[in-house]
Every structure is written in structure tokens, then in C-alpha cells.
Write a structure and sequence with these properties.
Helix 1 packs across helix 9, helix 10 packs parallel to helix 19 and helix 16 runs parallel beside helix 18. The longest helix is centred in the N-terminal third of the chain and has 20 residues. The protein is of the alpha/beta class. It contains 19 helices and 22 strands. Strand 1 and strand 2 form a beta hairpin. The strands form 4 sheets. The protein has a 10-stranded mixed sheet, sandwiched between helices.
Length: about 575
Amino acid sequence: MDVRHASWFGDAESPLLGHVHLPADGRARGAVVLCPPLGKEHLDTYRGIKALAEQLAERGLAALRFDYEGTGDSAGEQDSPDAVAAWQRSVVTAVETVRASGAEHITVMGLRAGALIAATALPECGPVDAVVLWDPIVSGRVLLREQRALYNVTQGTDDPDDPRVSIIGGVLDPEAAEVLRALKIDARSLTGARTLLATRPAARETAAVSTLATALAGDELPLDGHESFTTPSTLHPVIPAEQLARIADWITAGAPTVAREVHFPIRERAVVATTEGGHPIRESIEYLGPHRMFALRTHGIGGEDAGGRGSSSPTVLFFGTAYEHRLGPSRLWVELAREFAAHGISSVRFDRIGVGDTGTAHRATPTPLYSDTSDRDANDAVAALGVDPADLAVTGLCSGAWYASWVGIRGQARIAVLVNMILWSTHRRKSLRDMLGPPVPGAPGNTADTPPEGVPLRARVKTWAQKYLPYRLWWLLGRLGVTQVPEVVLEALRRAGVSTTVVLSAQDFRSFRDQRGEESLQRLRRRGFTGRIEAGPLGDHGGYHRDGREFLRSAVASAVFREFGILPAEPVTCERVS
């Protein structure tokens, strides 16, 4: 069993969040720096990288995985002009950190874009003993071409007046995009290091990878079926256990046989940002409830001490989306947390059991959504905060929105901000527990008024019922959990006295209407419902569309500020349903 701890490390002005995995006795034969991909690929492979770190620790090695500056939970802005240099500095800092721990043998591993970032950062890292290029993207030009093509196909275009460059799960400043485009793995930067090139067969046949392999003249590992790990078609990336074991064995085989004591200092608090007025924004690492769920608390300015457990200051609890970590679109919660802190509002974001940095990944599976265990995790998180319900706001996207409503209905929060909510039942049938989200969305604005050929009979019946079934019967089916009727959850929140704002992308607003949400609102208004429905003019369910994500951020912030009276409500550019 490995020993793990989270810690901030690196420059005090731009600290990185890392997770260290150590052998149980604290002695290691060497250390491995794990450099992740970017955007959605980092999101999809997060659990697999964690599983590799756990396997390395089992084999007697220390492993450090981390978020680059401006990504995940680390400090920095993702759209900084200096972003690429910041990612490379992050690799250098990680290598320096493991070297300072006392490890004499150092391996650097990079997955996908992480291989490109790591390889181009190596000249500044000092001597390393081994390098693993895991399914590498060999040039920034290829990376941007692939990412831009995928973004355009799935999300459509962005506002042309905003020059930032969107990729799936992130956004780049134009200067950073140009720097990234110029990057290329040069085998000479790996000279003197033992190398492993792990590639998909199709990639190995390309001229760029073939040339790199010849120049490296190192070991190789074929990766069959790797797409289901790096680019999964479902919410469940397939962790390639056999391939991870072979990579871990290769790294271990080159490490010294004698283990040395290593020391990684634990730093549980850090200044992650500074306001325009010069006030520091602090975050602390915490573990919530009896199952010690990993959490980060962002302390509101002026309330770093009062903003802890038992606080009477306004606090926001973020619920994660499905099986996602705070990467890609989910970095929205990180950015909102720091925005709230600048106005004196504390916040907590956490990982439920088996997700992100709570629990293990190797030989384990995440806790299913909408299960009794996930219910318990939500309850434990709220209880661990020690915040008066009158001071608590809860929010999340999709399944996170459902859990925000679940907490509110139980009288544990003052305000619920439900983002891209699709499950409107309080009674969850087994079939609904299996419904983790809609299909991968198409370009914004693409929809169909009638179901396409090949749609199952059940779906056709549901489509008919949505349009023609008397609303009272439709509502009754919603009460039973057979259909999704917004009135069911919203009425429960009204009865609980929870101030409610529903924030919907264009795609989810269409779904809201299809579920007869406007009829729901008319009935709710007659009973005194004062909640708001904020509908964006564009955007997808997952928050991958850049401008749609900006709308979500602005709408959530306005709802929280408005409720706590911290700032006058800023106008939100959206379509309001009332």
C-alpha cells in the first residue's frame, strides 16, 4: 500500500498542486515525475495516471503527479500569454522537487501533450536518468491541428472578436498558441537518458514518430486499443492496466536496487492568486468527513480564519461533475472559487469516493453516480463544513447540479445554483441511476425536431408523450421517476425555502423546454416560486464551448453575489425565462 499526500510546491508566487505517492516505508529506489496531457485528455486520463503512480509506489519508487501552472488546481491563468513557458517551468520545478527530496535516480514520463512539454523542458531540468514518451504528440503544430479540428466539429465557432484559441477543455492566448505551435520533440534533448517510446501502431507508422524512434534508438512499447483511454466515447475511460504495468516494470528495471529515504515536505496552505488591490487569496488542503475526501478550501479575503469550519461567513460548496476532476471545463469551479474569495466568500471543492484524488485508482472503480454511497459522500461533505445552512450556497453541473438540489431539499443550504441540470427526479429509478449524461453534443445550434430513424420505440413514445400527454399525467410520471419534469425538483426546493437559480446552456435549455419546463414554471409561479432560469444563447452540456462556458461562469457568479448581497447583480447576457 502506498503512502500519499497532497502538497503545494514550487514558487510561492505561483504554487503548483501535486500529489506524492511513496512506498509504505518512505524509502524509494528513485522518483518519477508524471507529466499529464492538456485539456480534455488530462481529464480523461487523470485516473490512469494516478493508477500508474500507485503501481510505481508498489514497486518501490516515489511518484509525483501534478497540475501545470494555469491548469487544474494550480495557481495561474489558463489563458496567459506565458502559458507554454509556464507549463515547461512546471516540469522543471517538479524535477527539482523530487531531486531535493533525496532521490538520486529520476525518470520523467510525459503522456500525449505532456510528452511534448516534458521533452522540450528537459534541457532546463538538469540530468535525468530515464524518459518515457507515452503516446506522444511530437509537435505543437500537430497538437493544435488535431485539437482545433475536434473543437470545430463538436463545438462550432467562437465569438470572432475574442482572439483566444479554443481547444477541447481549454483556451489559449494567441501568443501562447503560436509558441505551442513551434514546439517539437528533439531527440537530442534526451541524450544520455534511457528512453521508452510507447506508441499506437498507427502513430508509429507516421514519418514524424518513425524519425523520432530512429533518433532515440531506445526501447519501444506498442499501445493497442489506447483510444478508449485517451479519447473515450463514454464517461468511463478504460484504464489500460496491462500497459501501465509494462511501463511501470520498464521504469523499475532501470532504477537502483538500493532504496534511499526520501523527504517531500508537506505544504497544506498557499497563496494561489492576488487581487487587483494586492490582497492574497489563500487555499488550504483538507480532508472531509470520516472517509477523508480530498478537498480544497478557498478562503474569502478578510476571513481566512473565520472562513474555516464552523464559519458564519458565506460559503459555496462545489459538487463535481460525474467522474471528472477539476480539469478542462471543470476548472470553471477553480476560477469561480478564486473570484468569490476576492469578495469575501469562502468555498470548498471536493472529490467524492473513487473520483479525482479521493481513494485509489489501481484495482478499484469509482463509486457509481446517484448511489447510496454518493448520497452519503454529499451529506458527509456538507456536515464536515460546519457552516450554518443560512450561509451556504451549493452548485454543480449535471450530476453535480442534482446533488446541489439534493442538499437543498434537505434544508442544508440557502441557495442552490443548478447548472445544466438534466435529472429532475427526486425518486431515482435504476434506469435513471445509469443515465450519466447526454451523448457527446454536436455543434451549437444543431438539433432535430423529430427523432431520427433507428430511435428505439421507448424513445419515440417518450417524444410523443412530451408533446401530447396531458401535463398532469406527465407530472405524475415525473413524480414516479419515469420522466424528467422540472417542476418536481423545483417545487421541492420551493417547499424547502431554498433560493434557486437554474443556469442552462443553449443545448440544455432546449432539453428544459422539451421536458415541458415552461409549463412547470407557470404552475410554480402560481404557487409563489421566485427562482430564476438563466438560459444562454449558445453552449453545450459539458461546458466545452468557450463562450458558453463564460456565460455559465458569469451566471453562477451573479446568482451567488445577488443572494449574499456581496455585490449588486451584474447583468448577464442571456435569455431569461420567467
